[in-house]
């Protein structure tokens, strides 16, 4: 009989057994890290709308059972062979970027964010809806001491996506930047945009989020139910950037006419419906539409450091791991204020 160096004790995980089925809380053996991998004792894992890809089987080639979760914060508790860059006891997280192949054309050009074979925690391998997970070292993010695990977790997908897309959007301090949607992404987008020194217009449906948007750092609020947001933006000279966070292609399309000269619609809210735009809308004013996905672990560390420095924090609702199904339903309802986080 083989002997093991460490006792194998069971742990709990929330897994999806087949696409479209409910979460199951199961006992599993604690995984062992392989070469160039570490094991993380998970403290918190954010629930992201993209977890629907795992829950509903919308990612090509995904294998089941699968444990979702790509907003993971915890403590490294075991190193695999060949790991000298990280220590046990060190705080670490994992976000959307779960590892690159290092060999595709994008990687050879140093553009790891756009790796053709990008690994995604919770899709390519088991993610953070469990007490322990294994991750390759190229996916690891160091977490500053001042950020609580439940606050750091959502910054590793929702946070980095808004921070990184805005800092690469071409907007300069003082520019008019609109943030469409005041939800999981949008409430962070408003805070980052404010701290970057933009003039921030928050766009929401209904008047109820106006006060909150201003507290988060918006200098004005546009109720797109009551008025045409594109017209309102044009009255202000047009937006340099519109950060489109709410997953509605229709609402995003309606905003394109709100862009100023050389303005850019930066799309980060995921939908599967087409955007509607005419060439004339883009040609007049040389406007652009760009999509953006998260970033590398180094970008995540920039996000965390900036959040620490500038006081940007996610607003969260926490649920214990055992209530993963309830927590996921809460995220899907769109009523959460604003990120739902599982704690272990
Ligand atoms: Zn995500
Ligand atoms: Zn690659």
Tell me how many strands there are: 15
Bound molecules: zinc ion
The total count of helices amounts to: 10
- Terminus-to-terminus distance: 33 Å
Strand content: 25-35%
The helix content is 25-40%
The low-confidence parts are none
Principal-axes geometry comes out as globular
How would you describe this structure to a colleague?
The protein has 344 residues and is an alpha/beta fold. It is 25% helix and 26% strand. It has 10 helices and 15 strands. The protein has helices spanning 52-55, 105-108, 149-167, 186-195, 210-216, 229-235, 249-255, 279-283, 297-310, 324-333; strands at 10-16, 23-29, 37-47, 72-79, 91-94, 132-136, 140-142, 176-180, 199-204, 220-223, 239-244, 259-267, 288-291, 316-320, 339-343. Strands 3, 4, 5, 6, 7, 14 and 15 form a 7-stranded mixed beta sheet that branches. A 6-stranded parallel beta sheet has the order 10-9-8-11-12-13, with helices on both faces. Helix 5 (210-216) links the parallel strand 9 and strand 10 (220-223). Helix 3 (149-167) crosses helix 4 (186-195) and helix 3 packs across helix 9 (297-310). The longest helix is centred in the middle third of the chain and has 19 residues, at 149-167. The radius of gyration is 20 Å and the shape is globular. It starts with 9 loop residues before the first strand and ends with a strand. The model has no long low-confidence stretch (mean pLDDT 96). The structure holds zinc ion (2 copies). One zinc ion binds next to loops. One zinc ion (ZN) is lined by residues 100-101, 104, 106-107, 115-117.
